[in-house]
Structure formats: structure tokens, C-alpha cells
Amino acid sequence: MSQQKEQFLIDTERIAFDENHRKVIKFNISKYDLAVDKGKRQYADLALARSRAARIKRNVVNDLEGYLKEFEFNFQKNGGQIIWAVDDKEAVNAVLEIARKHQVKTVVKSKSMVSEEIDLNPHLQAYGVETLETDLGEYIVQLADERPYHIVTPAMHKSKEDIAQLYHQKFNTPEKFTPEEITYYTRIKLREKFVKADMGITGGNFLISDIGGIAVTENEGNGVLSMSFPKVHVAIVGIEKIIPSMRDLDLFWSILSTHGTGQKITVYNTVITGPRKSDELDGPENMYLILLDNGRTNLANQEHQKLALSCIRCGACLNVCPVYKSIGGHAYETTYSGPIGSVITPHLRGMEEYNHLSFASSLCGKCTEECPVNIPLHELLLYNRRDAVKAGFTDKSFNLVMKAYKIAMNKRWIIETFSPNVKNIGISLTFSNSWGPRRKLPVFQTSFTERWKKMHNR
Question: In what order do the strands lie in the sheet with 286-292?
Fold first, then answer.
């Protein structure tokens, strides 16, 4: 058993039965469920919008190199500088080199999952650079010294009372600080940092190939400030975030916001194509884009699982997943949690160490049903399981049990031969440990054949 799997089992056992945790998550996700359901009603034909978005992203995945070359040419033509990073180490070193070159002392960051993926903040701080998250949710988890809990809403696991208590501990604010007061207090505190920051770091929701642009969508305005106030702007984006054309952006911006937060469109939507021009008043003097691979090429080489590169990071699959709603985001111990994380993480970080995530699913298919770009997530989880078994990364006892199960299911006489008592003993010996202490194993009584004969007097 890998160390990651062992820790995962310990954490999930603890978290799944934390009643307060379940209460907070149930409440917070229920609010998103209502908003998303309402947001979907703006579409006259949501299925058509999803199929168009899916087709566009699949075309990109199948010709990723071609679109990246087109993007690179157009972005550099606009004055931007591109750095290709094979892995997290190269990406971090690139950021540190930029910070050294421009004598950066203070960095403001807008919300970016890819910067979490490369664990950027600790490296910058170790280098002596003050690094501040400016998204309210990210700022809260940074204060709490935690990782984001959710792709879209990093502090979903905290109630308003938890956050008020955290601010009281950090800033000696009133213990019953309201959400409005917390937001205003944070806004005033961060505004000073935006003005003084030497460098701004963002992610990117989409890379627009035909114009060489980076599209950033947000609700608080911190992304716009992070890009425009500092003299240096660094965007770190995964290579899969390409869309072909500006014409596609109206479809993707709206379908992302609808499935992510239930909005028709998010509050701030920005496209940046490079550094400030000579006739422009605002914007950075230097613009760098770090295009991150970090296992994505490995994922692109998978026959089936490469479809997961279509993901637009809306977080919808997390909100509907019964496993995520039970164990939460931190138990996964990965940047990307929930169904999408369980599909891609074994390919980004290693199948041997992270294949257990693909088994942490009920395979109910709700994630597939909800995905705005029609990724068959529950099917991809099965392909991951298959690959883990073929590679010999799963428990040997599990493999033996499944082989025996397959033989028994294919030979009906084997099932009919043994009495219910023998079957119950066999099931108990085989599954008692994996079934867990809080559930009772099913009890065999009479077989279907016996019941059928009795019903029909045969």
C-alpha cells in the first residue's frame, strides 16, 4: 500500500464521520446547487451548448501541439515572453529567476490552482519574497495555513463563524465579525498591497490561440488589479487551457460561470495579450507566461483518459459527487480533488502512488451528467482502475478476490453449489476488513434460483 493511500484511508475515516464538517459542507454546497440550477435556465438548449463546448475542447486535445504553436506565435508577436516548464521545479525556478531579475520584494497573487499545483508560495517566501493571496477565499486559507478545499471556492469547508474566529485570532477583530465586515476589512487591507507590489501573479482560465490572449474570469477584481498595478505580471497556465478563437469565448465564459457559480457570467472578465503598449496608461511593463506541462503530456498520451484535458475547472463534478461531499477536498491530498482530480492526478503525479483515488468513487455517473464539456468522468475512472491493475499497483489480495469473483459469476453452478452458510463464511473472511467496521455485510439466505422455483412451483 502506498503512503498516500494509507494516509488517505486514515483521513477519510476521520473526516467522513465529523458531523460538523458534514453540516458545513452540506449547507455550502446546497447554496451552490440552488444557484447553478437557476443559472442553467438561461439556456434555451443547454445540451447543445455543452456539446459544442465539448467538440471544441476535444479538437484542441487532439491537436494540442498545433494550437500551442499558434498561440506562442501570436503571444510573442504582442510582446509577451513565454517560458515552457516541463515540471513544477522548472516553473518555480522560472518565477524565482524573474523575481531576481526585477528585484521583486512583494508579490500579489490572484486565485490560481496551477500555482497551488507547483506549491509556489512557500518557494517565494523561502526566497525572501512576501507573497499575498488576494482572492478572499484564498486569503482565508492562507491565513489558516491550509490548502484550498475546492477548485472554485477554496474556503468552502469553513462557516462564517469559523472565519470570524480566524480573523479574531489573526487581527484581533470582533469575534462576531459579519461576512460583510470581513470582506470590507480584507479589501482595505489588500488595497495597500496592490499599490506597493512589485509583481503580480495570475493563472488563466483560457488561452486564446488566434489572438495570443490570456482570458481571466473572476468575481472580486483582484485578478485585474494583480495584472495591472505591478510592473511585472507573471501568468502560470497549464498547456491544456487552449481554445481556438475569440469567437469561442462567449460560449466558454458563460458555461464556466453557470456551472461554477450559477451566474450568467462572472463579474470581471479580462483578456490580456501582452505588456503595456507605449500608448497605454495601464498594465505591466513586463509580461511573462509560464506554460506548464507537469504530467499533462503523459495524460495526453492516454487513449481514453486524455479527454480529461478538456476540463475547464468549473468544479461542478465536485459539488455533485457523494464521495467528495462526504470526505471533502483536503482528504485527497492533491491540488485537484473530486472526480476530475481522481482521473488526472494518477497521470500528473504517478499512477503507483495515486491510483487509489480512482477507486474512491461510487461510479454513480453524476459527475459525467453534470460536466459542461461532457467528459465521461466515471468511465475514465474505470480506465484508471484497469491500468492500475494491469501495472500491478493494486493490492494482490484485491486482484485475487476479483479473479475469483469473475470465475464465480461466469459459472452459475459454482454459486448454486454452496449453501448460504458457506457463502456467508466466505464473504466474511474475504471482505470483513475492507467492508469497514460501521457497515454490516449482506447475508445470504436463499438463492435466486431457489426463490424462482418456489414462486413458480417448479
Answer: 81-85, 286-292, 232-238, 199-202, 106-109, 130-133
